[in-house]
């Protein structure tokens, strides 16, 4: 399967999850993390979804899915334990040009959701095109071990330095050349060891070195 990799901005977008079980719960949590506005349609909910509904974090419609329920949404996830219901909901989503994911592949969806590791704004994903979720999970576990929370903090440091760098190196080509040289193994070694101050100092030393050579 040839898929186009994309990171989707769902902030304040209306999204619907059909189903209220454990799979639906996982999908809801990832949508909320993306700051989507989430509606769940299901006759009953898993315990953690009940809590979210009671806290009004999600909109809950206690009912079976029926035609017309997809109206007004940007994205839909069909996650019931019924292949028939998932397929019917997905068909409606397709007709209404709503992006749809079908967890049991009972009907062709528009996208799959990869296994992911999040470290602040750093997002690492693994997709097997649906061929082996088990392999995707295993690779995710390995990524979690390899890339700890310090990488997210490093990204915040880099963002701060980038703003300062624009004053020092006004030309984008110069900044591109700098970062190609700056992201060396020494900096990454400091990050893996949790030595973030040393990593930031190394980046700033690289700026001074680059300026002296320019």
TrEMBL record:
<dbReference type="Pfam" id="PF13241">
    <property type="entry name" value="NAD_binding_7"/>
</dbReference>
<keyword id="KW-0627">Porphyrin biosynthesis</keyword>
<dbReference type="InterPro" id="IPR019478">
    <property type="entry name" value="Sirohaem_synthase_dimer_dom"/>
</dbReference>
<dbReference type="GO" id="GO:0004325">
    <property type="term" value="F:ferrochelatase activity"/>
</dbReference>
<dbReference type="InterPro" id="IPR037115">
    <property type="entry name" value="Sirohaem_synt_dimer_dom_sf"/>
</dbReference>
<protein>
    <recommendedName>
        <fullName>precorrin-2 dehydrogenase</fullName>
        <ecNumber>1.3.1.76</ecNumber>
    </recommendedName>
</protein>
<dbReference type="InterPro" id="IPR036291">
    <property type="entry name" value="NAD(P)-bd_dom_sf"/>
</dbReference>
<comment type="pathway">
    <text>Porphyrin-containing compound metabolism; siroheme biosynthesis; sirohydrochlorin from precorrin-2: step 1/1.</text>
</comment>
<dbReference type="GO" id="GO:0043115">
    <property type="term" value="F:precorrin-2 dehydrogenase activity"/>
</dbReference>
<dbReference type="InterPro" id="IPR028161">
    <property type="entry name" value="Met8-like"/>
</dbReference>
<dbReference type="Pfam" id="PF10414">
    <property type="entry name" value="CysG_dimeriser"/>
</dbReference>
<dbReference type="InterPro" id="IPR006367">
    <property type="entry name" value="Sirohaem_synthase_N"/>
</dbReference>
<feature type="domain" description="Siroheme synthase central">
    <location>
        <begin position="119"/>
        <end position="145"/>
    </location>
</feature>
<dbReference type="InterPro" id="IPR028281">
    <property type="entry name" value="Sirohaem_synthase_central"/>
</dbReference>
<feature type="domain" description="Sirohaem synthase dimerisation">
    <location>
        <begin position="151"/>
        <end position="207"/>
    </location>
</feature>
<keyword id="KW-0520">NAD</keyword>
<keyword id="KW-0560">Oxidoreductase</keyword>
<dbReference type="Pfam" id="PF14824">
    <property type="entry name" value="Sirohm_synth_M"/>
</dbReference>
<dbReference type="GO" id="GO:0019354">
    <property type="term" value="P:siroheme biosynthetic process"/>
</dbReference>
